[in-house]
Design brief:
This protein has a domain of about 110 residues. It is built from six helices and four strands. The chain has a four-stranded antiparallel sheet. α1 packs across α2 and α3 packs across α4.
């Protein structure tokens, strides 16, 4: 299926150029029909459903066109008659509906992913807080063990010094915490 409708900022739209191509009409005739509809449309509806735009032709010349919402498109093509126009209307309406469904599904998927991430972030933050508490406790215990080992080394080394005939140098090697105490 030709891309008759595209997603523009979360809204399905089409252009006057695509409408002219699909209807096999001159683009200037489609622009005239749009200008006519716009002139009879309340300003709030104009701004919401018709956006002036431009395209560049093969020679690089800038030409005007309109980007239209589904409602803008419907208002314009209701003025076109005949079997090809009616068939064309339904083809575009189907394309608009399809794009709306794609946009809705994408939004649903994004919302679900964000909700999953929020839950996962909460669980990870909770776990991180617990790990930090445990780490603080382990660091306190580590410090206490090192102090106790140093105290034991100092005590044992002091006891060994009571024996003058005992060569103390090899003993220093067995007491790693005592070097700072001597």
């Amino acid at each position: 299926m030709e891309n008759l409708v595209k997603n523009q900022n979360g809204q399905p739209v089409t252009t006057s150029l695509l409408v002219a191509k699909k209807l096999k009409k001159n683009h200037k005739d489609v622009l005239r029909a749009i200008d006519n509809v716009i002139s009879q449309t309340p300003e709030s509806q104009r701004e919401r459903n018709f956006a002036p735009s431009e395209y560049f032709d093969g020679s690089g010349k800038s030409n005007r066109m309109y980007t239209m919402t589904k409602d803008g498109f419907t208002a314009v093509v209701l003025g076109f008659t005949g079997e090809p126009a009616i068939k064309f209307r339904w083809e575009f309406i189907e394309a608009f509906n399809h794009m709306e469904q794609i946009i809705r599904e994408a939004l649903t998927i994004n919302v679900e992913a964000v909700q999953r991430n929020i839950k996962r972030r909460y669980l990870l933050n909770t776990e991180l807080q617990k790990v930090n508490r445990d780490l603080n406790e382990l660091m306190k215990r580590h410090k206490a063990i090192k102090k106790e080992l140093r105290d034991i080394d100092i005590s044992d080394f002091a006891q060994l010094r009571l024996f003058p005939a005992y060569n103390i140098e090899p003993v220093k090697l067995g007491f790693p915490n005592i070097r700072r105490a001597i």
